[in-house]
Amino acid sequence: MRTLVIGDIHGCSTALRTLLNTVRPGTNDVLVTLGDYVDRGPDSKGVIDLLIGLEKTTQLKPLTGNHEILFLEVMAGRIAPKGWLAAGGTETLISYSGDPTKLSWSAVPKAHVEFLSERCLRYHEDATHLFVHANANSVYALRDQSDDWLFWTRFCDAFPHVSGKTMICGHTAQKSGWPAVRPFAICIDTWVYGQGWLTCLEVETGTIYQANEKGEQRTLKLDEMEVIAETTQSIRLPASQGS
To answer: Pairing with 229, which of 72, 111, 117, 132 sits 20 to 30 Å away (CA)?
Structure first.
């Protein structure tokens, strides 16, 4: 059994499909997806279709991201659509209806709404790791975390968790294209919707698989990523920004 973790997908179905064809998650594998499936990229609909299909072929643990929260809140009429549309919602709307000028939910399949609202998880945890979308307050168990921590707090506010487990998260886009690695936490949102990559971490081996929307791929080990993280920091690449 493997534990595979995929970072923020943001509507990039080509990169996701390329990664899945490489790692080929099977029925005995646990596949954790860290949320932010929709918005910004060109094919949010296709991403959700792929995830729903994975429920039948692997042990999928799909987490909720802040962009799913915004999507569902707008659909339910609980918040105004303007902010969501500006934050990548326009691309999501186009992927469903093909028309960015019409805010209509009739093209969103009921199965997609049910997946996002009923089957996506707040977090996942195993014997050695914490899996969250954004971050976790270091002094509280995951079951006691606030929405602000789990879905909105940036990686720069991460500290060693009281459980002693390593946290794996997304949300804070690493515009270098490399995961951000700390001794106690790893952020694998590597800006696939921009000029970066979609990252999959195989936890047991520390293997990092990456693919982009061009269908390109690269593979490294986590200990090599730690060296890269130090190098990129020393040359002061553009600061990471939350997604």
So the answer is: 132
